[in-house]
Prior knowledge:
Chain A has helices spanning 2-9, 19-35, 42-67, 75-92, 97-120, 126-145, 155-162, 170-188, 190-200, 202-207, 212-238, 249-259, 271-290, 295-322, and strands spanning 150-151, 164-165, 168-169, 240-241. By secondary structure, chain A is mostly helical. In chain A, 63% of the residues are buried.
Amino acid sequence: MSSSAAVGQSKRRAMPAETGVFVVLSVLCLAFAIRFPEARNGATVSVILTNLAEISIIAAGMTLVIATGGIDVSVGSIAGLCGIVLGKLTVEKHMGLLIALPLTLVIGSACGWVNGTLISRYKLPPIIATLAMFSAARAGAYVLSNGNSISGLPDSLTNFGYGSALGVPTVAWLAGAVLVTMGILLKYSKFGRSILSLGGNREASFLSGVPIGKVETRVYVFSGLCAAIAAVVMTARGATAVPDAGKYLELRAITAVVVGGTPVIGGRATMIGTMLGLVTIGVVQQGVVSFGKDVMWEMLVMAVVLLAAVEVDRWRLRRALAA
Amino acid sequence: MNFSKLKSVRELPALGLLLVSCLWLIFALPSFRTAVNLGQVAQQAGLLGLLVCGESLVIITGGIDLSVGATAALCSCLAASRMQAGWPWLIGIPLAIVAGGAVGYVNGVLITVRKLPPILTTLAMLLFLRAVTNIATASVPYNHIPEPIKAIAAGIWPFVTFLLLTAGLAVMMSQMKIGRRIVAVGASESSVRLSGVNTQAVLRLVYLLCGACAGLAGLLMGAASNSAQANLADGYELDVISAVVIGGVRLSGGEGSIIGAALGALIIVVMRNALFLYGLPTEQYGLVIGAIILIAAFAEQARRSRDRVATV
Amino acid sequence: MKRSIGNIFMLAGVVAIAALSGCGDKPDAGSPSSPTKDTGTSTTGGKSKRIVFVFKSAGQYSEVCKTGAMRANDELKAQGVTVDYFAPEKAENAKQVQYIEQMIAAKADAIIISPNDAQAIVPVLKKATDAGVKVYTWDSDAPTSARRFYVAASEDVKIGVDIAESLAKDLGGKGKVAIMSGGRGAANLNLHVQGVEEGLKKFPGITVIKPYIYNDEDQNKAVDMAKAAFQKDPDIAGFAGVNSQAPPGIGEAVKQLGKTGKVKVWGLALPSATKDYLHHGDVSGVMLWDPAALTYLTAILVNDDLGGKAPQDGKEYPGIGKISVKGPAVVMPGMTFTKDNVDKFNF
């Protein structure tokens, strides 16, 4: 962390934190656009954005979590649980969406609150607390649903999953709104500054009067809330609540955040980087499909992208230090 | 005096939990205490335990290795494919171990030389290895594993291997200089480095050992079910890390023992077996395992606050 | 200096993004259809067609299906038709939805899917149909979807019934039977299980053990769970395994526990993966169709349908046999493999 202070001093001359992901994404986009001229159209962009909706919403919350130096591996399971809750409430309890949706969001936030309390008050390492939630929430989804999918969701919900406004899918609008909100929160609110100072130096921020317990708990609540919103999107897009839903979302969200240039040790974060990281994942996914390659190649390319983005970031930091 | 000394034994909660649950099961569940079932529990515990031993070394240094399951799959497929191609089985074992060690060493180099965070490095390695193994094998399992390898993967033998490895590593940790250095690196890397120890070499060795354990575990896992395939040990990294934590190893490093982690592996396998025998649908296992992880974490928490009181 | 490098990167990125998104206004007409890569051909010419399979998940079964898709691709190439395929790494619905969205954007002509979740896939299939992509199912159906027809290897329930009847005959009509499946959400597997249950009901001497066992399509897990199942209920007399990992996994467990001959195992699996167990006597028999032939047949039927020719009941295809058309389902005849005939097949 000694380097970050130096970066701060020469901020005016340093390249932005998003440089790494920007370079990698640019290279990928160029390669993709040259190789597949027929894919250079709005439809491709729209598909990429639609397919990113759930990961984007989860990655928005994850950026806050990683900014505190923590990690939340339970988001995929929470999303699975919330999807089932939404299905149960609307289909079996015949509740209107106006009641069912807020309840679903409350459940997600509550899971996040449990994570946050375990971490901030009981001082469990984030990976352990969220690992336990990872198991428990998934099991909860199975127990509630008896392992069965729930279909027959209200039409208004499924229409939302496939609707679009101004030529952009509704779910992409929603994902963008969540990302921007969280980004503004992180950068311009007192809460956001507390998150960064907590992630940078816990003791110092405690001594300077930041209520670190409260801030940390709230970060995980936001992450749980994001998982619930993602669950709504996922359920609407699938028109079915599936207890298995959301598996591996945490892995992809973490990858997006880290590729975007937010360091896993916390203290620094960039929501714009996360957005670029997400688009990188989307471009890789679409590229692999366009090449007619197996999904395994997607994992392979993502592994390389992950390391490449971190390497470019290191190079940027070194230059900044030398300056 | 004696009592307080006993209280500071880190493995005690895990040992207690294991003994109590085993005793309970032996009396309450007739199908648990059959020799065949206990043999199966031992076999599975042995296979999981090999992964856990390596992972616990990494976690004691304050790192984490998410790639152990993927390493196991790669080594299993690599060795099985070579042996199927006619290489003698005697080469298969060192091949798997060396390949695993090489993967671990690459992790170690990325972490120490390129200074990448362990969680990120091994996450990338996990993605990379799973992809490579799937592509290289076309996801087709190898079903012709030589009989001698199957023999050492069958019955009680994985458990014996696991016990020997645990004993060996435990001796290394308590009696040898390198063991003390591993713990010290986890407790405070900078102070160890300032005292003149090449901490980077220590870390590389630890990741290498972890990879080698995963390689051996992978070979035996594939042989135990006579099917070396690319999705072998999929999702095991979570089980492995849970076992290490249940065994009382501090996730931030510097505290914990191999024996504790080994007990953690036993607890997980015994619990799984018991839940199955009680006829609980598999989807509910997560609740129980999650609860055990939490209990272990709280025990660790209590211990830490007591330590703090003691030092004040 | 540093600034300028940063600016160059920014510029490069802007150019790249513009290349990706902005160039939409001078689209397909100008660009020659890329001839280099078979999968890259678009539908601009009007003649070339793209048929895409979406598998349940990557794995041995899918590998065999791929050979059928490739065979169809080779045969149909002359007509300007390309056949390709995608397989998610895990049997999950979300990934299949994503592939279909991507194929809609890529303007494929036909999508043939084996859905992991028969319900959840429905809306995206409708979206594809609305976008002018013809949709079919094969291997596993989505009955409520907009698919044009479903190509099945035997009927899903029927094959379960067949397994149950062979197993019951093997058991002499009495004993405890355990059932192993792959995952809870897969429609065809659930129908197989339902078929097994129905078939066994005819034999009052047979009881079915609950809960069912799920191996998550993981063969190592199948072995472990089968072994544990014999500890839970030591008097299991028969085992039915309805996904392709189950019979070899159960067979391995039977072999390791020395129960060969004492326990009868029937199920659904690739003959190549079960061959050793059939010969050793751990598994009595498995039923299956040739997945490659099924996939090949599906591609041919779909190509005909794109050309306006619907499948015909009773039509014979070389090496496959007579197909039967029952409503939306096109059924290919299945096969039973025992130790007597298994060596004649190589899939």
